[in-house]
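User: I'm curious whether this sequence folds into something compact or stays loose and floppy. Could you predict its structure so I can see for myself?
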Amino acid sequence: MYQRHLKIIELVKRQEYVSVEKLAQYFDVTLQTIRRDINKLSKDGLLQRHHGGAGLPTSVDNSPYQTRQNLQQTSKTQIARTLAEHIPDGSSLFINIGTTTEAAARALINKKNLTVITNNMNVANILHGNDTAEIVLTGGVLRKKDWGITGEATIDFIKQFKVDYGIIGISGIDEDGTLLDFDYNEVRVARTIIKNARNVFLVADHTKFERNAIVCLCHVSEVDAFFTDKTPPAKISNILSESGVDLFVSDQTDNELIESEPIF
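Assistant: Here's the prediction. I'll summarize afterward.
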């Protein structure tokens, strides 16, 4: 194995995801060279190839919450700001578990007279700073690793409402359009949110494109709009277009400055 391959694996393990552009800059090689490296390592099962970069290969366990908080922070903020433009004052919302949905909550901090039902204690804490918002926290079992709430009580509680917008995150989007996640209990809650929202808004950054996870949530055609930071791969883009899902790609003006941590 090339020494460069070993170093790429080391960098991805350290950061969970590294873009092709940053790897090419780090090794002072062409984008094509890095793409060949990633393809080889992905074929060998050592990395997971993503649109625009490489990540860890597992489909069973998600990254730790603290790690996910630090990944793609600027991208998540851009996605959230774009989403907020499509949420009118006075709306009712479900917001589920995830670091991108938490970014959405921060972007909604100045909206007026929102009613937000959430199974994410971090979302409730963020929107506590919105004096005009009514925050409704579901019952259920607290997941201490990320302050998410799941379980039968959560599902029963959500079933009592029909809201204007359901804002959901996801861990992976398969090339066939299947939305994937790691936790069956979390997925059951998300399915209930989808069923009880008039409009379903999916928020996910580009590292989720073609990322593997073990549990199927639904097909992307079941959402009304998808908010992301980069144009999806052709197969996913075609599915969105054919299904009539509105695609919103956030402004990429400062994308080269996204990460707060260097890759070396």
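Summary: The longest strand covers residues 197-203. The CA atoms of residues 20 and 164 lie 39 Å apart.
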